[in-house]
Amino acid sequence: MNYSFPNLRDSLNPDTTKVDTLNTVTIDTLEEYFPGDDSVKKDTLTPTANVSPSGVKSKIKYTARDSMFFDVVNEKLYLYGDAKVDYEDITLTADYIEINYTDHTVYAEGYKDSLGNPLRDSVGDYIGLPVFTQGSEKFFSHTITYNFDTKKGKIGIVTTKEGDGYIHGEVVKKDEANNFYIRNGRYTTCDKDTPDYFIQASRLKVIQNNKIITGPAYLVIEDVPFPIAVPFGIFPSKSGRSSGIIIPTYGDSPSQGFYLQKGGYYFGLSDYMDLALRGDIYTYGSWELDASSQYINRYHYTGNFDIKYSYTQTGDPEVPSTFSSSRSYFITWNHTQDPKANPGSVFSAKVNFGSTSFFQNTLSTGSEFLTNTFASSISYQKDFIGTPFHFSADITHSQNDQTKEIDLTAPDLTFTMSSIYPFKSANSVGEQKWYEKIGISESSVLQNNLTTYDSVPFKSLGIASFANGVEHTIPLSTSFKVMKYFTLTPTLSWTDRWYLQSITEHFYGNTDSVVTDTVHGFRRAGDGSASANLSTTIYGMYNFRHGDIVAIRHVMTPSISFTYRPDFSTPNWGYYNTIKSTNDTPMTRTYSYYQNGIYGAPSQGKVQAIGFNLDNNLEMKVKTHTDTSEGTKKIKLLESLSINGSYNYVADSLKLSHIALQGRTTLFDKVNISASTTLDPYFHDTLGQDINKYQITNGGKLGTLTNANITCSFNLNPAAFKSQTTTKGTPDELAAINKHPNDYVDFKIPWSLNVSYGMYYTKNLASGVTTPETSQTLNFSGDLKLTPKWKIGFTSGYDFVAHDLTYTSLTFYRDLHCWEMHLNWVPFGSHQSYSFQLNVKSSILQDLKLVKKKDWYDNTIP
Predict the structure, then answer these.
(1) Per DSSP, which regions of 64-179 are E strands?
(2) 303-334 burial, b for 16+ CB within 10 Å, e for fewer?
(3) Which tens digits make up the pLDDT trace of 743-758?
(4) Model-level pTM?
(5) DSSP letter (8 states) at residue 687
């Protein structure tokens, strides 16, 4: 087969039979033109070649779908139809490509009709337009000219993606350092061919993997230019993190004056850690500082921390009656270790610590003020693999912003030994003997605890302010069958307490006042008990002959126990002491040397008690009908309903304990219900104290309801009615969602509804208050996708005791393609407020936004 190579591109489908003998060479193979070049393929039936002529540093690989022509005189190669050229790290594709071996350039353009007009496909794109790819850079253009030697190029009407943004330009020139110079350019983060908005600049320079620099530029939205221009613009285009200024939000607050919020500096410290320093400042004197960081070492650990310190003032300093000020702080730290990072050893932290009034007194706009209690935990756990030993070290903290009480345990050290069986035979054959099942375990706990109030400075608290001690617990137990159907579990347990402080008491002079003295020095006290528990399981089944109900099964698990414990307050144990006053009306008082200890004193009173417990489970089996078959399924009617109590027959009085009832179930696999209550079986005196007389003996009443609660909750969405697996995001996406859950809007779920109901009843008879305390609330939250681009979220509830709505908020979200709109509205209540924001989605232009809001702390301003 012979190939004909004209020097001009006559048309899209040139007549290959027409040969100009002055400007064409007819050869059998390309070997005739490049003799001895092994890179040239000799198979003339394959339209692919690797050409490396003299003067070109590397091989040029090219292919074409329709045809290839070579002009020998002018040393030009023409490629038609899905043409492709590969040179070093460059790939060029187009409908037409022309390679000039004389000046080492390549030219590419798209498909044109016979009149020279560009053609378009069904979606409006030019057919076969050039695509220039070099490394991670890709350009879409109308024409491209590129020089292999100088590595410079000229691109006409270009669109390229740079970082998180897109660049459109009329003419682009490329230098040998892979920098691009664009004339009449547009920068945008919108991926449309005609972007919704862009920053127009007459000149742009793109520095590879660094930044984009523009000359004078102005913003254009929906083809409407803004009248304000900037002299220059700089946009980062680095991959990964980079440091930079955080532009603040500005505004005016009636109570705080003009302000700048959330401004500062972001430090992209490394691929593993960042740091953001932000601050708020108000012209009336208030301010806040905030330092936050995220860190991650994949497959090892991940975490974040945030430290806030604020000064808030209201009113006029010159008018003391209206002026108030406060300083507060709050620290948040979360750390999670990958379980595979260090098997057997885990460190974790979840810290929420600070001023108890932080979210009430500061300029916070979140819903954290609804939380009354904050808790923290820093924990290290170590399993000694191959042994029964386990060690843990914890620092825990809790604080109540109502009572202002702070409880701190630092540290809490625990060393445990799992059950071992010392009498078990190493080569046991057959059924185990009862003594082989005897197991012994051990637990040692050291605690150092402090209870104080946030008004007391920590620096004024010394070691003596902490309560500390060590508690050792050694249980010995076994279990075996009795009479085939019963399981007997005997247990012996001893608890030993070690203290470095104890107390002594004496009456002050001839008065009834008691003086308590602290005695330093090591002392120990212990107590123990013996018990045996006998349990069995009873099954009941009722089968139905007709209908969709197949059967109902009832499972009862009764158990009875006996507990023996001596009276450790007798003098022979040496744990208690009795003192007597010397006044005219002598009185006696019995106390324990260890009653102020962190683990308390050994128990008082002899116990020979019988305990009882009955647990119930109720299930139903029903028929299921499908198009192809019939089957059955189980439905839980009652997961658990239990009643328990005890009777101490050696007690002087009040031998029967209070009776506790608990129940829980799940309806339709979606509605969770739980309830509990406690009955006091005794009559009471005028002070609310129990007296040794049962209520059932007079009128048949079982007892007085002292407390009760019932909770019900369910979560509903379309996915809850389908048996499918939810798609999960990447670790980075999940981390971002967990840190900023309010910024994430999931349009995949058309609607969701979360409902919870709680009723709590308490009657503290011992306090002498006959009116019970009750609370009853219904809370609900969810969201609804109104259209494919609109979504509304809501949170609210109703307090049946106060007859009022609880904290209520509405959130509106509108997806505007490369823009988004948020409206957060708290319509009523002490934190009534609203916040409206219209902003670009991309973080690269996060400061391109419109914000309008009214904060809750401005409601007191007339």
Answers:
(1) 67-71, 76-87, 90-100, 105-109, 131-134, 137-147, 153-162, 165-174
(2) bbbbebbbebbbeeeeeeeeeeebebebebbb
(3) 556 667 788 899 999 9
(4) 0.68
(5) T
